[in-house]
Amino acid sequence: MGEIVLAAKITHVPTMLLSEQPGKLQGCRQQAIDGQRKIMRRAREAGADTVIVLDTHWLVNAGYHINSNARFKGCFTSHEFPHFIQNLEYDYRGNPALGDAIAAKATEKGVFTLSHQVETLDLEYGTLVPMHFMEPGDMPIVSIAAWCTVHSLEASRKLGEAIAEAVRESDAKVLLLASGSLSHKIWENDLYEANNGTFTISREFNRQVDLRVLELWQNGEISTFLKMLPEYAQYCCGEGGMHDTAMLFGALGWDAYTGKGELLGEYFPSSGTGQANVIFPVV
């Protein structure tokens, strides 16, 4: 029987890649990189052999979608930030059977979901950036679209349930990653440079709510957080509508989840948004 052995809400900011390169941003995101490497170490120690990524950079406008290719190989340049992410090479294994099983379970719950094995369906950087640093090696990955423009958080919760059920009926030991920011109001273009945009948040309101959310997570007050999730996603411009977060907690048991989040490193602003790496133990 399979299981989710570790879960986390993670950042995927492009400046993590620039942090590796010579220049004025070298080292600027080291604590975030270290946090993601620690997540992978913990996952391996817990027996993880598969990674599922809930990717808020994969936009979908109808239904839910899973990239279940048997292999992901390519060279990625971001359309959004071509000056930040260029020629990022990748080569990962996939798990078509698990992707298919998740889609079937979700559709049974009334959440129409398609699993795709299409060679030209590439990965988005919400998957590619964390995988670059976590280095899954031979661990297969499954990427699920979580930038959901016309979807309800309730449907995404059910998709999370489907993920957990499909994993239990498999032989996979899964690291589940919700890849997306906390608040996500990027600086207006005309204000970016004047406000040192790479390292600041665009709205103090958003920062204060982010910090409260992290406090709730660390205190294990998940049911309280879930009651505020719709408004948090709306008023703080949650990335991808925060559907990754709804899927994550759906997989963990929603308001019945009794674990406490563990913040790895620091909360940090990036290009106006709020970012963090937070582990959620499976209890």
From TrEMBL:
Transmembrane segments: none annotated. It holds the Pfam family LigB. GO terms for molecular function: 3,4-dihydroxyphenylacetate 2,3-dioxygenase activity. Keywords: Oxidoreductase. It comes from the Bacteria. Its EC number is 1.13.11.15. CDD domains: HPCD. Residues 7-280 form the Extradiol ring-cleavage dioxygenase class III enzyme subunit B domain. InterPro entries: HPCD (IPR011984), Xdiol_dOase_suB (IPR004183). PANTHER family: 4,5-DOPA DIOXYGENASE EXTRADIOL-LIKE PROTEIN, 4-HYDROXYPHENYLACETATE CATABOLISM PROTEIN. This is 3,4-dihydroxyphenylacetate 2,3-dioxygenase.
